[in-house]
Each structure stands twice: as C-alpha cells, then as structure tokens.
Amino acid sequence: MSTPTTGSSTEATPRPPSEDEDRPEKRTERGLSGQSGSRPAGQAALLRQVASSPAVVGLLAVLTALILSSILILAADSEVRYTATYLFNRPGDFLHATASTLSEAYSSLLRGAVFDWRATTGVRMIRPITDTLTNATPLIIAGLGMAVAFRAGLFNIGGQGQMILGAITACYVGIAWNLPPVAHLLLAVVGAALGGLVWGGIAGVLKARTGANEVIVTIMLNSIAAHLLSQVLSLKAFNGEGETGNRKSLTVADAAQYPSLAGDSFRLHAGFLLALLVAVAVWWLMERSRLGFQLRATGLNADAARTAGMSVPWVTSLVMMISGALCGLAATAPVLGTQKSMDESVVGTIGFDAITVALLGRSRPLGTVLAGLLFGALRAGGTAMQAAPGTHIKIVLVLQSTIVLFIAAPPLIRAIFRLPERREPLGATSPSPASVPAAAPAAPAAKEA
C-alpha cells in the first residue's frame, strides 16, 4: 500500500514554544527589564538639564553671595570674634553669637524690604514693600533696555548717560511747559524716552557706520552726559534753590508728576505700572514680532543674518536707540515720581545697576522684573540692615557686588557646586548673558549700510 503524500511537506515545521516563552510572567519580566534601563537614563537627563539651567545657576549665585556676605558680617562682629577665641572650650557661645548676629542682620533686611512686624502702625508695617517697588521701578525699566541690547549681541554700558539725558529732557518739559495734567505727564515721559534714544543712537550709528566699539563709545558718552548735567543745572531754566556745590533744579509741575498709587504716606507712584507695561511690550517685541526676530538673529550670528538679507547696520542702530529710549524712560521714576526735581545725583548708579539686573534676569523680561525687585529690596532693606548692631554700613554693596561677580562667571558657580555643563539646544534664541561682550557681532563695512 502506498503512503499518501501531504501538501505540508514543503512547509517549515512550526517550532513549539519554549517553556520560558510560553510563560506570561517571563514575557512580562522581559518587558519590564527593557523599560527599566530607559527610565533611569531619562531621569538622569532631566536632572542634568535642570541642574545646568540658567535659572538654577542664577539662584545658586545669589545663594553663594549670601553665604559670603554672612561670613563677612560674622567677621566684622566683635562678639563673634571674641567668642571665637575660646571656641573649643565653649562652642555654644560662638554658635549663639553667630545665630544672633545673622538673624538680626537678615531680619533687619526683611523688615526694611518686605514687612516691618515691629512697627506700631499699619502704615509703617507695609511701607517697606512699597519702598521696594518704588526702588525697583527704574531698575526694571533700565534693565529691560540693557536686556534688549544683550539679546542683539551688543553691550550697552551707557545706561547712565542715557538716563541723564532722559532726566534732563523730562525735567525741562515738566518745568518750562504749562499743559493740562494728562498731556503734560505724557509729553514729559515721551521727552525722556527721546532724550535717551538720541544718546543711545549716537553709539549705535557710530557702531554701524564706522565699527566703533560700543563699550568705549558709551563710556565716553557717560562722561559727557555727567558734565552736561552739571552745566544744565546752572541755567536759569533749571536752576533752583540748591547750593552751588550741589545744585538742584526747580520742582516739576504737579501736572507732570506721576500720580501716587498708595496715598501720600507712601512713595509708590504710577511709574511702577509703567515698568510692568514696558516689560510686556519688550516681551512682545523680542518674542512675537518680526523686528524682535531680526534682533535675536543678529545677536546670534551677524554673518548669517546678513546672508539672510537682514541689514545688520540698521539693526545695530535701532537696537541702541531702543535700549537708550528705555534707559531714558527709567529716569522719569526719580524726576517725575520720587524726587520731583533734578540734581547732579538724580540717577545715582541705576544705569550701572541695570546691567546687573539684566544679567541676573538672563536678558528675559520676566527674569529682569524679578531681578529688579530683588535689587529694589536690597536697596530698601539696606538702610535697616545697616542699622543692625555689628553690621557694616557697606555690607549691602558687598552683597550686590558678589552677586555681580558670580552671575558674570557661571563656570565658577558650576565648579563650586559641581554642576554639569549646559548643552545649548539647537535653535537657541540668545547667547548667555555672561558672554554678551564676546558675542557682539563684528562691525560691518560702511558700504553695507
């Protein structure tokens, strides 16, 4: 009898499943083991990204400055130094003196900048926070002006001179003109912006047309503006009742003054609302407008921007004009808000402090506002902190200076705290603030204008 032939003889014989494959728990274990390797890697990458972020570096810079300032406070306190002589015999005395000195110093800072819980009236209790907002107003506006220049790859160090020109223009409009209230204030504000725009535009045009370094030009313009202010205060249109050594202008008209936001018992004025509006406008300009894209593109790579058809000389001039206009606008805070007049120290060191504010804020509007509030709090709380027993009068200046030092040197902070190096993603929108001077675009030839 012949054996029948089946059609399945040419097909591969199916392999029976192994014992491990047939068990569902083995398949589950293999799936989990495949995912377990990716989870730690993803978490490590996330932690690395967070640890190397500019925000963390900025916070650690402030923390490091506070630690260094605390050491200096302790070193200057006589009781701490005395208890340190017998530290190993009675360490409790040293620790108690240390805690008492630091708590008194920093509680004084908080009471002078945020809330005075030792005050006897409600007005005195909340006055510190209003002083903080008042001090932060010009720092925020001028810091935003610096941030615009930084994002475009330019280092505007002439905020001081631009503020002086804005103060002169605003003060003249407020004194010499007689206009209705709203119109008078608006024209004084616009005049301040125009004064700063012209002074910043000089540096921008020289940079664009001749390749002059904007740092050197703006430093020289600062000196010229300071001497111009001294000369202007001797004119009849400005001269007031001040002494010859410290001349002072007349008080600006009531119609040109910022209205108060919290009553006559506080110094807070409507200039703070203007600072917030300026922050929103700068955010829209840099992040949502076509012009802002050109500014950022020029700051990242001037050659690439030129190849793409952008006029780098025009962008350079416009950036310095915008930056100068914002710095001039910042001068309205003291001239039309707090002092309501002008003297030789009307802008103080706000123009230079604004550079630190922009660096600490990473040249972003929100960060600049927060950094301005921080420095406003340091200014407001500095007076109360200096009154604390054992606290040196210059400790607040040391604190601000060390913040500048650590903000300007991110590698130093990364080395201290063993942070990983930051890897810039593709398509980053701006250079790091610490590298702004090095990132400044090369000056194009005059024929490209």
From TrEMBL:
GO terms for cellular component: plasma membrane. Residues 428-449 have a biased composition (Low complexity). Pfam families: BPD_transp_2 (PF02653). InterPro entries: ABC_transp_permease. Residues 1-40, 426-449 are annotated as: Disordered. It is found in: Cell membrane. GO terms for molecular function: transmembrane transporter activity. The chain crosses the membrane at residues 55-76, 136-154, 185-206, 215-233, 268-286, 314-333, 368-387, 393-413. Keywords: Cell membrane, Membrane, Transmembrane, Transmembrane helix. It comes from the Bacteria. It is a multi-pass membrane protein. Residues 1-12 have a biased composition (Polar residues). This is ABC transporter permease. It comes from Actinomyces oris.
